[in-house]
Design brief:
The complex is a heterodimer of chains A (about 650) and B (about 625). With about 650 residues, chain A is an alpha/beta fold. Chain A is built from 29 helices and 16 strands. Chain A has 3 domains: about 290 residues, Glycerol-3-phosphate (1)-acyltransferase, CATH 3.40.1130; about 110 residues, Arc Repressor Mutant, subunit A, CATH 1.10.10; about 160 residues, no CATH class. In chain A, helix 18 packs across helix 20, helix 22 crosses helix 24 and helix 22 crosses helix 27. Chain B is an alpha+beta fold and about 625 residues long. In chain B, the strands form 5 sheets. In chain B, strands 18-15-17-16-20-21-19 form a 7-stranded antiparallel beta sheet, with helices on both faces. In chain B, strands 8-9-13-11-12 form a 5-stranded antiparallel beta sheet. The longest helix of chain B is centred in the C-terminal third of the chain and has 23 residues. Chains A and B meet through loops of A and helix 17 of B. Chain A: InterPro entries: GPAT/DHAPAT, GPAT/DHAPAT_C, GPAT/DHAPAT_LPLAT, Plipid/glycerol_acylTrfase. Chain A: It is found in: Membrane.
């Protein structure tokens, strides 16, 4: 059973070569206005007719579940039931979407304009759209895109509008609702808004979960949400958030719908709109508050080019099929299904497994750009070379082509155009990212930020600070392709560290590493063995290792691949080891580190972050290290890190 | 499966005609058969039975009037006539002799079953295919001395080796005969049964009681692993009403009587039991008790457990019965509840005292059309909440509504067809009902005229709140007709590569919609999964309402052309559907029973301790497993 989705994957990889269609091409040939007014006639959902916003909200607020919770809350807070009901209605009002076709048209008109300017193409796999088209008629569909850019937010609606597929209702963060006018436009384009820190607000949880469940039960419109929770600042997949996932699945667990279709969507950008914003956020510049003014000011980004966007609609996943043997639906038979009860461990585990699976599918479906491969290589070059001497272009080309082959061997989807000379592909990639690297005299250099007026000689740290943003962006773009290599890289690391060839032992270390990095990379819980087998066979496929019944041995000439992979993972390994200064690298690339934490700790950090990032040789003052430790390791995750470290050092002392 | 043919006053004539034909049948019957020993007077009977026992539907040799490999009477079946129109033969039913013009198209459109593809059944039973009987000579010798008739004739034995599960009928049509009873005995009365059971214990032979043979739970199947001689104990000749107590409104009846005979005989005295399971044409009183049967009109009369006052059952340990006829007792767990639902594993039910009621003064059918199934269920729920359910209220889903429509007999007058067209126009165009969503509830009211009319108004008022439109008596009556012809239709289907069956469950109100949707969808998915080439018919109806839930019936059929082992596919799908039912909070069975078909789920249904309780009763009552049908446990 566990292997079912994997077999699927294999099939997916084989007929991977789905035709991609640039949906902008046709748009460029027709008028934006007539496009916005096109007839929109989606096939309706078979099981039930559409349901108006008013009706939807009525069903939610009159639900038995909310009635139970309202009573409970009234008793707890010593309020009257009416007061609590009033509050619940308020929450619902703040939350609920108000999807109107008119606004979808408006949105489509604006997007048409914007997209045509920003992107050279938006590639969509039409097969995927067709599958979605059928799925929306059969079962409630949950659209689950990855989240890398604000652009993700409505692009799906835009594509579905073009292809006559019901417009989704989208879960969005409440800050967006606060934007003047824009908030309302979003709401009418199908967004519903969720508060960020809900904590233990029982009533809010109740309204939200009932709202989501009702949407799923009604099923007339797809529900779209970002399972990663928020935009990934590092462009690496984030560990999925499970609250929403569980709400979505509950109607199936309780038999209120026959099945639910999960649809992983991978949106890949050649160049992310907010790249520098993200880098600066990572360096401690607070995220600007979402505001309409901010949006207007940001319009200067429109003047730049961002390459192409790929939207890959994955294969529909049947929750019913996937949950077989994982969830015992009988458990809901003996109590009223709308009784507010804590979900069982089994249900939670199932939600977590599914959520991880979806993120993996998103990773598998994403298009890796040549640029991402180049970044992976550039980061393995000593920083000094990139800032001072420059890396010879031909060297980079050679290595990139080598890496391209490896990536293809590992089953990656590469966005490497056919029929264009490889050197041109790479040059145009570098050109697109000229804010990060530049070519001078046949060499590649990291871009340095404009120097502040220099009255006195700057300290070496300051010098580094100037390339910080660019270096961070390199790391982020490298992260885009990390998922392709991470499993084999773990094996490579295991081989390197244990100096052992026994399969069992390698596997033990492999799963230990997976455990340590479980917040760093996406590993589907409980599938270590499959991951290990898969990684080994990939390594074998590219000729790096020999596999026998008991042993995994390094093949002749396999070191090149293995050491590259090891090197790829090294920063992460280092950061989890003792040396405190190396932890910072982890933080820069880590999912553990999110902007909220930075807001609190930003001022003293920027400097250290960068200096530590750049190289191990950098000297750090004692004071700064301590400062860092108190600032950063004081965070919630400290315990976890310490724990992982201890484990690492005690079980497998790393030399 | 099939319901009574004589519902309202309009059917009286037909019932009378029917009785005449039965009597005629009896007269023509050859007196005794080659192997059967003639019945001797039942000494235990003492006085003459209250009602004459001459007019009975089922003869000892069932093959004289019934099909050997299909449902019901040999003379009644659906056929395609020379013009390619469907027709129902015979004279027994209202539909008999009528042309059903819509059926052929419906069969084609629903199943892709065309006239060109015919799956002919083995025409006659080949006696040489029947394994020779393993007789226990000592038992046979002693049995002869009691004078109870018996037979080891192949036909007699094959007739009692099956119920009406799909796999049973399908095998017969293919001419495949498995393990069958080695002998059939026909006791005439309670004391005959006592003798037979004593002998069976003495000689260690296996007894399987046989009533009407309408089981759909594999309960009559002979366990293949049984090595002893298997005796089928056919109760059909124990069919007298022994007395009627008009002061207490009870009747004492031999358990072998079949439903229609019981109703007809009681009617003659102005009474009825009101117990009308869909199979009442053929199923027996003893069978009802042994399976916890439910009748269509249970809202007025109750289910079998509400109707029974006293039961007499012969077990290997002796006779079990209560000492009085008190209407309710607080004397520990009710021993009747060990008997009801025992499915022939503990003994033979021989006599039953049950409640009777005066024949209702007035009967009226009705129907309501709802815009969709959801509204219909909501209406039924409200009717149950207000506890004002009529004698019967059933809600058919859209597919079944269309099915019912396809069974409309040819209308003779242009006026009627014009009227039908007008009705359709009103409902779909004027009222905006989607013909692919609307569904219909059929109603049956009974009682005194004034109260019926009042009751009718109350129910229609509730229906109106849920968007229901009254749709006339005809539609209602046709709905009930469907229940008894459906089993005949299955035989027609099998002639053209369509196999199917119905199964049922009971479920709390809040899950009715979910279970209907999920089970229907599961069936469709499983069929696709298992390689069924044509879309299946997967439909349901809510057939009974209770305070806390409802009984739901599923019909499921598909065209098996292109499948190498259709019965296996069918069984896999039914199995999956049952799993789905259980996962959605439905029960293992509402009234069909467990038999051997659903045994695997018994433990999780009643818990291990519950199984232990039942097993310990079995161990005490029948330690040598004389009643070795291996049902239930």
């Amino acid at each position: 059973m566990t292997n079912m989705h994997r077999d699927f994957t294999k099939v997916g990889l084989n007929d991977d070569e789905e035709e991609l269609l640039d949906i902008l091409e046709e748009r460029r040939r027709s008028s934006d206005l007539s496009f916005a007014f096109r007839t929109f006639s989606p096939q309706p959902y078979k099981a039930a007719p559409p349901c108006s916003t008013v009706e939807l909200n009525r069903v939610v607020s009159e639900s038995q579940f909310l009635r139970y919770v309202t009573k409970e809350v009234a008793v707890e807070k010593q309020l009257s039931v009416e007061e609590v009901q009033q509050e619940a209605r308020g929450i619902l009002g703040e939350m609920s979407q108000n999807l109107q076709l008119g606004f979808i048209r408006l949105m489509a008109y604006i997007f048409n304009k914007v997209f045509k300017r920003l992107y050279s193409a938006i590639f969509v796999n039409m097969e995927g759209l067709n599958r979605l088209h059928h799925a929306t008629q059969e079962n409630p569909v949950i659209l689950m895109p990855n989240h890398r850019s604000y652009m993700d937010f409505l692009v799906i609606s835009y594509i579905l509008f073009i292809h006559d597929i019901p417009i989704p209702v989208i879960a969005a963060g409440i800050p967006l609702a606060g934007m003047k006018i824009v908030g309302e436009i979003l709401r009418r384009s199908g967004a519903f808004f969720i508060r960020r820190a809900i904590g233990s607000d029982k009533l809010y949880w109740a309204v939200l979960s009932e709202y989501v469940r009702t949407l799923v039960r009604k099923g007339f419109a797809p529900l779209e949400f970002f399972v990663e929770g928020f935009r990934s600042r590092t462009l690496k997949s984030l560990s999925p958030k499970l609250g929403m996932m569980h709400m979505v699945l509950e109607p199936f667990f309780k038999g209120e719908v026959f099945d639910i279709t999960l649809l992983p969507i991978s949106i890949s950008y050649d160049r992310v709109l907010e790249e520098s914003l993200l880098a600066h956020e990572l360096l401690g510049v607070p995220k600007p508050k979402e505001s309409t003014m901010g949006l207007l000011k940001a319009s200067r980004v429109l003047s730049e080019k961002y390459g192409s966007m790929h939207v890959n609609f994955g294969r529909p996943l049947s929750v019913r099929q996937l949950c077989e043997g994982r969830i015992n639906r009988y458990q809901y038979n003996l109590t009223p299904r709308d009784l507010p009860e804590k979900s069982t461990a089994e249900a939670q585990a199932c939600a977590s497994w599914l959520a991880h699976l979806v993120v993996r599918k998103q990773e598998e479906g994403s298009q890796i750009s040549p640029w991402s491969l180049m970044c992976g290589l550039l980061l393995q070059v000593p920083t000094r070379v990139l800032t001072e001497e420059g890396l010879p272009w031909h060297q980079l080309t050679e290595k990139t082509l080598w890496l391209r082959k490896l990536a293809l061997d590992f089953g990656a989807r590469l966005n490497w155009p056919d029929g264009v000379p490889d050197s041109d592909v790479m040059s145009s990639s570098a050109e697109l990212h000229r804010s990060i690297v530049q070519r001078k005299a046949g060499c590649v250099f990291l871009v340095q930020e404009d120097e502040p007026s220099r009255k006195y000689p700057g300290s070496p740290e300051e010098g580094m600070m100037r390339t910080a943003a660019a270096a961070l962006m390199l790391a982020s773009y490298r992260n885009q392709c990390l998922h392709v290599f991470v499993r084999p890289a773990l094996v490579a690391t295991a081989i390197h560290i244990t100096k052992c060839t026994q399969r069992d032992e390698l596997f033990a270390f492999f799963s230990f590493l997976q455990d340590v990095f479980s917040h760093e990379f996406i590993f589907i819980p409980g599938e270590s063995l499959q991951d290990f087998e898969e990684a080994c066979s990939l390594l074998k496929k590219c000729g790096a290792v020999h596999i026998s019944q008991q042993e995994v041995t390094v093949a002749q000439g396999g070191m090149e691949v293995l050491s590259f992979l090891q090197e790829l993972l090294k920063p992460f390994i280092d950061s989890y080891q003792k040396k405190p200064q190396q932890k910072l690298f982890l933080l820069l690339n880590s999912n553990l580190f999110i902007s909220q934490h930075f807001k609190k700790h930003n001022f003293n950090l920027s400097f250290f972050l960068y200096s530590l990032f750049v190289s191990n040789k950098t000297h750090i003052t004692k004071k700064s290290t301590t400062q860092f430790q108190t600032d950063v390791l004081g965070m919630k995750k400290k315990r976890m890190l310490g724990c992982a470290k201890r484990k690492c050092n005690t079980i497998y002392p790393i030399p | 499966m099939a319901s009574n043919s004589c519902g309202g006053g309009s059917d009286r004539q037909m019932a009378a005609q029917h009785r005449l034909s039965v009597i005629a049948g009896h007269l023509q019957r050859p007196s005794g058969s080659n192997t059967a020993v003639l019945a001797v007077d039942c000494k235990g009977q003492g006085s003459k039975p209250f009602v004459s026992s001459e007019k009975r539907t089922v003869p000892r040799r069932r093959q004289e009037i019934m099909k050997w490999n299909g449902w019901g009477y040999s003379d009644s079946k659906f056929v395609y006539n020379k013009k390619g129109q469907a027709e129902f033969t015979g004279k027994r039913y209202k539909l008999s002799g009528m042309i059903i013009p819509g059926l052929k198209d419906w069969m084609e459109n629903t199943f892709g079953a065309t006239l060109q593809h015919k799956a002919a059944a083995t025409p006659a039973l080949n006696s040489s295919a029947v394994p020779p009987p393993t007789l226990n000579e000592a038992f046979v010798e002693e049995l002869k001395s009691t004078g109870v008739p018996f037979s080891a004739d192949a036909e007699d034995r094959v007739f009692r080796a099956h119920g009406h599960c799909l796999h049973e009928i399908f095998a017969l049509r293919e001419g495949k005969i498995g393990r069958v009873p080695d002998m059939v005995v026909w006791p005439n009365c309670h004391s005959d049964v006592v003798k037979i059971v004593e002998l069976a214990c003495k000689h260690n032979v296996c007894l399987i009681p046989y009533g009407g043979g309408t089981s759909v739970s594999s309960a009559l199947e002979c366990p293949p692993e049984e090595t002893r001689s298997i005796i089928s104990l056919d109760t059909s000749q124990m069919n007298r009403i022994l007395w009627i107590d008009e002061k207490n409104l009870t009747a004492h009846i031999e358990a072998g009587i079949i439903g229609q005979d019981l109703e007809n005989l009681l009617n003659e005295s102005g009474y009825c039991t009101g117990h009308e399971p869909d199979s009442m044409e053929f199923s027996s009183l003893g069978g009802w008790v042994a399976t916890r049967a439910s009748g269509m009109k249970k809202n007025i009369y109750g289910n079998i457990e509400d109707l029974v006052i006293r039961i007499k059952m012969v077990t290997p340990q002796g006779v079990i019965e209560k000492s009085c006829q008190g209407p309710r007792m607080s004397t520990g767990p009710d021993i009747h509840h060990f008997i009801m639902g025992s499915e022939g594993t503990l003994g033979v039910i021989t006599e039953v005292t049950m409640k009777i009621r005066p024949v209702p003064e007035y009967q009226k059918y009705g129907s309501v059309v709802f815009p969709n199934f959801e509204q219909g269920v909501a209406c039924l729920r409200e009717v149950a909440r207000q506890r004002c359910a009529p004698a019967s209220i059933r809600l058919m889903d859209n597919e079944q509504f269309k099915f019912g429509h396809a069974l409309k007999p040819q209308v003779s007058s242009i006026f009627t067809s014009f009227l039908d067209g007008l009705k359709k126009f009103y409902i779909t165009k004027f009222k905006g009902f989607d013909p692919n969503r609307l569904c219909v509830a059929t109603l049956l009211f009974e009682g005194n005229r004034e109260k019926v009319l009042q009751h009718e108004k109350q129910v229609y008022d509730i229906a109106a709140k849920f968007g229901g439109l009254a749709a006339g008596e005809d539609n209602g009556q046709r709905g009930y007709m469907l229940t008894f012809v459906i089993a005949y239709l299955r035989d027609l289907g099998m002639d053209y590569f369509v196999i199917g069956e119905s199964f049922e469950t009971s479920v709390p109100w809040d899950r009715v919609l979910d279970i209907c949707r999920n089970v229907k969808a599961r069936i469709i998915h499983e069929c696709k999964d298992k390689g069924v080439q044509f879309p299946p018919l997967s439909t349901c109806r809510v057939t009974q309402t209770y305070d806390a839930g409802a009984c739901v019936y599923f019909y499921f059929a598909f065209n098996y052309r292109g499948l190498s082992d259709p019965v296996h596919v069918y069984e896999q799908v039914e199995h999956a559907a049952r799993e789905e039912i259980l996962a959605n909070g439905g029960s293992l069975s509402h009234h069909h029973g467990v038999g051997k078909l659903r045994k695997e789920w018994m433990r999780e249904t009643v818990s291990s301790v519950g199984m232990g309780m039942l097993q310990s009763v079995k161990d005490y009552v029948d330690p040598n497993n004389i009643f070795g049908s291996r049902n239930l446990l």
